[in-house]
Amino acid sequence: RRELINYKKLCLHMWKAGSTVEKDLRQLGSFFYIDLVAETQSEEQRKLYSDVSNTMNECRGAVSVIWDARYFGKAICNLPRHPDSGVPWKFEELPESLEVW
């Protein structure tokens, strides 16, 4: 149980750090924004914006996965000891209840 609580705390710290990085990447995406359809931009500008956008989407996915891991760790810590109490709805609806499903 103690290890799971520490894991949950680690997930919280990673989620906070990932959210900060995601915010910074959104700002970079806004700064380097170009219209990819228009032919007026250079190939270097297109590649830069495309790289920032791809990295931002990967970061957003990783932050969502970390949130799911923390939530399920928290749900496991709060499971009742008696089997007749049932399980939380998030467990019953797996895998559709995952954020990244």
Sequence-ordered SSE layout with sheet pairings:
Elements: H1 2-31, H2 43-77, H3 89-92
Radius of gyration: 19 Å
Distance from N terminus to C terminus (CA atoms, Å) equals 27 Å
Helix share, percent: 55-70%
Number of discrete helical segments: 3
Class by alpha and beta content: mainly alpha
**If you average the pLDDT, what whole number results?**
86
The amount of beta strand, in percent, is under 5%
The largest pleated sheet is described as:
none
- Shape, principal axes of CA atoms: elongated
Defining key terms:
0% strand, 3 helices, mainly alpha, 101 residues
Structural overview:
There is one protein chain. By secondary structure, the chain is an all-alpha fold. Helix content is 68%, strand content 0%. Helix 1 runs antiparallel to helix 2. The protein starts with a helix and ends in a 9-residue tail after the last helix.
